[in-house]
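Hypothesis: this fold can be encoded by more than one sequence.
Test: take the structure tokens below, design a sequence, compare later.
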């Protein structure tokens, strides 16, 4: 039996002040989603990740072809991590429901 490989993606989640839409930007893999609610955003992002995984089924590293997010998003994420005691920043783990896959969302 092959060992299941976990896919962990850090995601920068932000709400646009003007449009009030939620945006998710994957960091290890440049995967994005948007929605009107945080709950719908989570579903859309996970569905997008699973679509990529499905497209590359059988490969040893299914998301290897998806490049990391641009550095600007990594810089924002690191800045949020440094200020994780700020009450406006919330970190929470989410499981996709599919064995071996997890998503970590960090919202500001």
């Amino acid at each position: 039996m092959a060992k299941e490989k976990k896919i962990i993606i850090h995601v920068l989640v932000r709400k646009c002040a003007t449009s009030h839409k939620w945006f998710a930007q994957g960091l290890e893999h440049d995967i994005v989603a948007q929605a009107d609610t945080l709950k719908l955003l989570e579903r859309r992002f996970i569905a997008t990740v699973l679509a990529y995984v499905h497209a590359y089924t059988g490969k040893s590293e299914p998301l290897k072809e998806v490049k990391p997010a641009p550095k600007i998003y990594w810089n924002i994420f690191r800045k949020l991590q440094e200020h994780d005691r700020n009450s406006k920043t919330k970190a929470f783990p989410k499981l996709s429901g599919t064995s071996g896959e997890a998503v970590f969302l960090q919202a500001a």
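The two ends are 41 Å apart (CA to CA). The chain is about 30% helix and 30% strand.
Hypothesis status: open.
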